[in-house]
User: Fold this.
Amino acid sequence: MAGTASPTPPPETGTGSRAAGWWRRNRSQRALWLLAVPGIAYFAVFHYSAFVSNIIAFKQYVPFEGIWASPWAGFSNFSRLFGDPSFWAAAWNTLAISALQLVFFFPLPIALAVLLHSLAWKSVRTVFQSIIYLPHFISWVIVIALFQQILGGAGLLNGLLSDGGMHAVNIISNPGSFKPLAVAEIIWKDCGWGTIIFLASLANVPEQQYESAALDGCGPWGRFWHITLPALRPIIILLLIMRLGDILSVGFEQFLLQRPAVGPQAAEVLDTFVYYRGVLGGDWGFSAAAGLFKGVIGAILVYSANKIAHKMGEEGVYQ
Amino acid sequence: MATLDGFREARAAWQEEPKAITKIGKAVALVVFSLLILIPFLEVLATSVASGDQITKNGGWVLWPEHPTFGAYSQILNGGVVTRSILVSIGITVVGTAISLFGTITLAYALGRPHFKLRRPLTLAVLFTFLFPTGMLPGYLVVKQLGLLNSYWSLILPVAINVFNLVVVRGFFQNIPEELYEQARIDGASEWQQMVRIVLPLSRAVIAVVGLFYAVSYWNSFFSAILYLNDSTKWPVQAVLQLYVTQGADLSGSTASTFSDSGSAQALQSTQMAVVVLATLPVLLAYPFVQRHFTKGVLTGAVKS
Assistant:
């Protein structure tokens, strides 16, 4: 039966094996399998075989010896990791930035979507939507360059401040202000794009609901509380739970780009920690242990978040 | 007529006229937010075409160029590192988007057909990678073992299919009525023909949007280049620009041309901003054509019936 799923077509004059018969009879199954092959090959190579190379977390990995020939190291990489204060500092930064994002970034797209939805002029709404979606498509390199240009030492803000006779402020390269700055950047980049899913939920609310509520004497605030918010509730809960599940991922490129300016104390997150200690520092097994630790905790969190979403009667991500 | 209708205030009879203060508050909030988005773009564009004197006078930035000049652009497009990096970015984006769309559409089609026997196990295998994303070091080791280090393929193949895009496209395909497939099958169409003749023409919106997502992510990516391409002369434009952002590297100095005036910091400033503009431009050009499909394309796919 080993050949059942073989993608190579058997010869025309098959010996009548079951596999060959199946292959001839199921033209449609064969076509679907062939269509799936390139994509499946991608996942097999770049995800599943990469998954296997996580074993270097348990090895003393030496690049020129390769993954398999490198000597085993048991859990020594992990014990070194958990005893390393800079790892816990990176973990703490990650959690702190996640928490700030949750409090200051998460609610904004909801508010903005409600505001846009309340606009009576459809074309004005369309214009604003075009503007606020745009930054989502701008690379982090450019976003940071724009922020430097506006808030940097020789930037627009300091130019205006000195014109006004005030002191220049150091925002871009000050470790103390880095975390709020990082949240401001993500708000600038993705707050507008975040409205799209809430606007779609609001668009699904039948107009008659608002109309009959208004006829029953329900004012704008009442309609907001009794119609708009309940319509958004499922998607808000779903996204909130998924965000909590993803709390160890705050974005990588944004922090990699600004770490040189503000230093690791302020800008080191788990992902940059892995890059600096592993790829740049050459401590492969140790960094792979950090990456694997983050991956396992992250998977558990996402999985439980999804289970909780199901328990609460929401749809969850995995249907 | 339609556009005129759009600009008229379309308030239903039951809606009360909002208070003036509410109207003003909403307008101020939206205008301020839009300006916060637009002013940085304007500032960078203006600085890139401003004269060195004006940049000096203002101390590094310009909002309105008095004597616009395209000197900075002709300097960086003169065949140096920046020119080369832009060509690399274009090549990666075009080839990458084509490969990504092909892989995503074919797999999404197969996983969307209810009678495909391997549908469930393969779908679960794909979704699992969403739960447990591939780490940076394991990904690097795979690229290394495949011998792709320092090859342009390392910027494309490891990110060829995005699970989110795949789910969106599959959802869109599944919303196409089964009768259309049935009809084509009766006419003798194979699975491939059903995909090309029935499904793809009905899916232009989602393909445009997902194509834009892929193109933008290839165009914007800089970290794969830093990670996989040791030879920085091969870098795409975002990776080159990153040198300026993180280290304040002088991008005009890396061009082959000798620009007589490039000694001053102000001339440099307009050059750097010109690179920022060029690195943003393709996204700005593609955006208006795809933007109107966002809601229809993404949400009908993601919110599966």
